[in-house]
Amino acid sequence: MARAKSSFICQSCGAAYTRWQGRCDACGEWNAIVEELVDSGIGAGPKSAKAGNRAVPLVPLKGETESAARIVTGIAELDRVTGGGFVMGSALLVGGDPGIGKSTLLLQAAAALAARGRRVVYVSGEEAVAQVRLRAQRLGLGDADVHLAAETNVEIVLATLEAGPAPHLVIVDSIQTLWTDRVESAPGTVTQVRTSAQALTRFAKKSGAAVVLVGHVTKDGQIAGPRVVEHMVDAVLYFEGDSSHTFRILRGVKNRYGATDEIGVFEMTTLGLSEVANPSALFLDQRDEGAAGSAVFAGMEGTRPVLVEIQALVAPSPLGTPRRAVVGWDSSRLSMVLAVLETRCGVRIGANDIYLNVAGGLRIAEPAADLAVAAALISSLTGSPLPNDAVYFGEISLAGGVRPVVHAGLRLREAQKLGFAAAHSGRLGEGDRLAGLRHGEHGQLLDLVGMIASKGKARGAE
Fold first, then answer.
1. Which residues are annotated as a binding site for ATP?
2. Could you tell me whether strands 395-396 and 390-392 are parallel, antiparallel, or unpaired per DSSP bridges?
3. At 454, is the secondary structure helix, strand, or coil?
4. Which residues face 453 on adjacent strands?
5. At CA 314, angle to CA 312 and CA 316, rounded to 5?
6. pLDDT value at position 52?
7. Where is this region: Lon-protease-like (predicted)?
8. How far apart are CA 418 and CA 377, in angstroms?
9. How many Å from the N-terminal Cα to the C-terminal Cα in the chain?
10. Do residues 293 and 311 make contact, with C-beta atoms less than 8 angstroms apart?
11. How confident is the model over 310-367, as pLDDT tens digits?
């Protein structure tokens, strides 16, 4: 009998090698490479299944299109991130830290769909049926018509789903616990995760049911397992949050049927996750008004404008190498803003310890936060508090200019709705200016620095 072929696969990133080595060259992890069989299973190569010589019919590009059928959960924040509800026949991957509330949110979504007459199947690989029922009772969902199963074998799960009436939604918690007997490796390994995800994705396309897969995350915040799993599914959602805060953020990083980078905000309560209709008011709650180093940033998360507080602290450093601590923003972006302030604006700030924090635990990725960060840094350095009724947004160039950003009108309208009376940004278009809102348009960062510094000097003279 022919010897089964094997490969050495990194369990952190999925990179394959022909022989074992201690350190993965792709992700840098040590002792993460394990030998696995790769010539069999649901996700095996093309030679394991013959496609035959069947011709595929070609159709013209021009023709009638049909919108994807969706099932709306009624949870507005979840429907917003998914693009209007779960698409029938799609596969979604939901990741997040342990205990962040993934299972709670999906159980609430399952109960909401069941109340709308949808058939929902919840497959748990981590908890027994009694444990799932106990959590449902704690959330007040004990009477929901949701079908439960506690199973980890993929073949048994698929046989169970195909034996009964066709479900509208299938939730699998979690993909790392599933295994198939066609692959000779332990559950949770790269091969098992990949083959299990491929089998469930194929079931979703064939049956028309929406399949939601729950995935664990690594210490870096990425969904554990190979990146190919994220390419298999139609949408990837990350559940973010901090144990020190009560709110959670559901962020869509990939969506074939909706906008990416869309967020939904929830608050963790004793009865589960409740929706937050106005995230800006939540992030600005208990803002440090009148304190130096605090600036309000008017940002965009997908199609939603969000106002959030940027906090900066500039302190003299007793060390030869000053500290740089950043929470919620890109540390390399902070280094760039500091370099522009030093070189283009003449601000001597690099020798100080600098701490930057996005209040509330929100993570910001867009460069439009450059101007708010610079304003908070100068405010802390000069000891001059910024006006409480002003927001800041704009991208800073390496030449010291302030560039305009997209969706300026939406940012300004959100700021005006929450009572802000002034906005500092780059150049605005004619249709972006709002009546009743003072617009501070800055072509150069030096203009904003001079304005804040002058207020600080005037305050010191008093």
1. 96-103
2. unpaired
3. helix
4. none
5. 160
6. 58
7. 353-462
8. 24
9. 92
10. yes
11. 999 999 999 889 999 999 999 999 999 999 999 999 999 989 999 999 988 888 989 9
Q: Band the pLDDT of 240: cuts 50, 70, 90.
A: confident
Quick check: 290 pLDDT over 90?
Answer: no
Which residue would you say has higher pLDDT here, 243 or 320?
Answer: 320
Place of tokens 């950003």: 405
| More confident call, 356 vs 45 | 356
pTM: 0.80
For residue 292 the two structure tokens come to: 């130096």
* Residue 22 DSSP symbol: S
- Of 300, 295, 384, 303, nearest to 337 (Cα)? 295
Q: Give the pLDDT of residue 398.
A: 95
Q: Which amino acid is at 79?
A: D
CB atoms within 10 A of CB 26: 13
Residue indicated by tokens 């000779």: 184
Q: For 38-47, 93-102, 443-452, which range has the lowest pLDDT when averaged over its residues? A: 38-47
Q: Annotate 406-436 with b (16+ C-beta within 10 A) or e (fewer).
A: ebbeebbbbbbebebebbbbbebeeebeeee
Closest to 364 measured CA to CA, from 334, 340, 384, 409? 334
* 236 DSSP β-pair partners: 93, 254
* Residues tagged in the binding site annotation: 96-103
Percentage above 90 pLDDT, the chain: 59
Tokens found for residue 398: 């390496």
The DSSP element (H or E) to which 450 belongs, if any, is helix 445-461
Decide: 213 and 174 in contact? Cβ < 8 Å: yes
Characterize the bridge pairing of strands 422-425 and 390-392.
Answer: parallel
Tokens 């209007």 correspond to 84
The one-letter code for the residue type at 205 is K
Mean pLDDT of the chain: 87
Report which residue type is found at 132. V
Residue in the block written with tokens 């008004």:
289
Q: How far apart are CA 245 and CA 33, in angstroms?
A: 36
> Alpha-carbon torsion 420, 422, 425, 426, what sign?
positive
Which pairs from 134-143 meet CB under 8 Å and 24+ separation?
135/103, 135/104, 135/107, 136/107, 136/111, 139/104, 139/107, 139/108, 139/271, 139/272, 140/271, 140/272, 141/107, 141/108, 141/111
